[in-house]
């Protein structure tokens, strides 16, 4: 059985609402839960994922910026030297970034999350209390 993958869409780099509007992806949360990993004690590693798995595959020249916001915190502000910040809000035509997406194995997502947290083992959910 193939390992579950997390898909990162290149177009998310061009939107205020990209990458689930800054929320942890449901696929990640479901995978953690299925594997007994306490995702509430481990931050989703969006920036490392984008830097190590998405950006190296983007065919255009892009510059990455981090945005302090409750929305998508990582975007590109230029594509091939052209300012695309108006694209973030839907006020300008969106360029097509290639490839359309990359898939990252969930084990790699976990590895990056653990590295960011300085952990070697994932935090685990406490077992449920026995019924009395």
Walk me through what this model shows.
This protein has four helices and five strands; from the N terminus they run βαααββββα. It has helices at 18-21, 26-34, 46-54, 106-117, and strands at 5-9, 62-66, 74-79, 82-83, 101-105. β2 and β3 form a beta hairpin. The longest helix has 12 residues, at 106-117. It is elongated, with a radius of gyration of 17 Å. The model has no long low-confidence stretch (mean pLDDT 94).
Strand-and-helix sequence, N→C? EHHHEEEEH
Low-confidence stretches: none
**Kindly state the mean pLDDT as a whole number?**
94
Can you tell me the overall shape? Answer: elongated
Percentage of residues assigned to helices: 25-40%
Give me the number of helical elements: 4
Strand order of the largest sheet: 2-3-4
Radius of gyration: 17 Å
Largest sheet: 3 strands, antiparallel
* Separation of the first and last Cα atoms: 39 Å
Structural class: alpha+beta
Number of strands: 5
Portion in strands: 15-25%
List keywords for this structure.
three-stranded antiparallel β-sheet; 132 residues; alpha+beta
Strand and helix map with partners:
Elements: E1 5-9, H1 18-21, H2 26-34, H3 46-54, E2 62-66, E3 74-79, E4 82-83, E5 101-105, H4 106-117
């Amino acid at each position: 059985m193939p390992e579950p993958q997390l898909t990162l869409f290149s177009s998310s780099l061009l939107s205020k609402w990209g990458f689930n509007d800054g929320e942890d992806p449901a696929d990640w949360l479901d995978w953690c839960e299925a594997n007994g990993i306490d995702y509430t004690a481990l931050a989703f590693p969006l920036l490392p994922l984008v830097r190590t798995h998405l950006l190296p595959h983007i065919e255009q020249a892009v510059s990455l910026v981090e945005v302090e916001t409750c929305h998508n915190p990582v975007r590109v502000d230029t594509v091939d030297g052209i300012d695309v910040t108006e694209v973030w809000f839907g006020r300008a035509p969106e360029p097509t970034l290639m490839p359309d997406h990359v898939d990252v194995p969930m084990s790699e997502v976990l590895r990056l999350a653990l590295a960011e947290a300085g952990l070697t083992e994932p935090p685990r959910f406490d077992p449920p209390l026995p019924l009395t």
